[in-house]
Amino acid sequence: MKKFRDIVGLFFKDRVFCGIDIGSQKIKVSLSKLQDAENFELMGVYEVDTRGFKDASVNDIGEFSGAISMALEGLARKTKLKITDVYLGLGGDLVETRMSRAVIPLTERGNKVIVPSDVRNARRQARLLGGRLEEEVIEDFVRQFKVDDINVALNPIGLYGRKMEVEVLLVVISITRLRNIYKAVKQAGVDINRVFFNGMALSEATLDRQRRQDGCMLIDIGAKKTEIYIFKEGLLKHFNYALFGGDRITSRLAKKLNIQYSLAEDIKKSYGRLDNKPLRGTDDIIIKKEQGFVSVKHSVIQEAIEEDVKELVEHIRDSIAASGYEGQIRSGVVMAGGGVLMPGLMEYVERSLGLSVSMARSIAGLNQVSLYAVSTSLSEMGYKGSARYVFDTRKPKDWRDALTGQAKDICSEYF
User: Fold this and answer.
1) What tens digit of pLDDT does each residue of 35-65 get?
2) How far is it, in rounded angstroms, from Cα 116 to Cα 178?
């Protein structure tokens, strides 16, 4: 009996979950402890510069592994906790997306009630048809189901039909790229528990069911790319990206002011804003150039930034129009990523789109929460895949109801 209690205790003891977000500029890691679905305790975050990684590929495995190790060791020192495994997030230029469809027969004659295994088979077929030999499918977002060519269903389980079609958005990565990343993480001294698509982890952790149902937009601003997701009726209806990010703003500033990239980055972080508020009681800043010190007006910096942001807003408008859900995004816009930290950016987007805009996450004790939105979401997704979550009675649906539902599904399928 004692041995049995010890085994059960392994499933329900407090566990920490480490999320690692590999970006083109920074590697961010987060460590969280979750006792149940309502108690999210962030233990700490840490970031280091990305090294040995260029053009979405590992180009020096020793350098890359060393950077990952440095990030994890820094987080371990900060939290005084041991990290043995991580939940890896992939996104940006590392992955590609494409649509895929599949049709499966349900019965040769008559019709049958659709059960969960039919949905799984349809999605599996769509992954096989849409993927390639040299790729790994890391996520498939269902857009819609169609039963017998006439009935478009959001959830086909329980309906009668003879055949079912599913339309999914596949997220894929080159197997070679993935293996190199796996090897680097392993060399850093930890195991990869599971791989997630950054957009999926972020949306699962930050958008509740009601928002997805009513219609909302999720915007994740990265260093090189901004990803745009539109949800409606509980499903991802549209995905797009804009070649807009912090790097592009910095490059525009460097070109306009004729200064080095590193100096432009410092100016952006210190003086970049879109709220028209006076800064430090003066309208000028002094920067050092080869020919000496020169004065630059804040308005010049703001105009350079606003040019890029205007293009981003236009791209967002185009995405809404292309999705076919214009006027139906009732729950507004949720934004994440380092770019959200720029003063006035969220307000500018809100005014331009006429939609309410909010930040993706709010975590006590963490000031730059949007900067770590992906890595904290990854650690939360690690919890949702654990045994503790399965038996968590604080979830919206009690575990007893979940087990009863599974038993009914089995009976429907085999009897």
Assistant:
1) 665 677 889 999 999 999 988 889 999 999 9
2) 30
Number of neighbours of residue 99 by Cβ within 10 angstroms: 13
Q: Residue 203: which of 191, 217, 183, 190 has the closest Cα?
A: 217
Residue 269, both tokens: 């972080």
Single pTM value for the model:
0.82
Tell me whether the CATH fold assigned to 96-176 matches the one assigned to 246-309.
no
- Which strands sit side by side in the sheet containing 357-359, from one edge to the other? 235-242, 226-232, 216-221, 333-337, 357-359
Pairing of strands 333-337, 216-221: parallel
Going from N- to C-terminal start, the domains of the chain cover 96-176, 246-309
The domain over range 96-176 is classified in CATH as 3.40.1440.10: no
Superfamily of domain 246-309: ATPase, nucleotide binding domain (3.30.420.40)
**Using CA atoms, how far apart are residues 135 and 175, in angstroms rounded to an integer?**
5
* pLDDT band at residue 277 under the 50/70/90 scheme: low
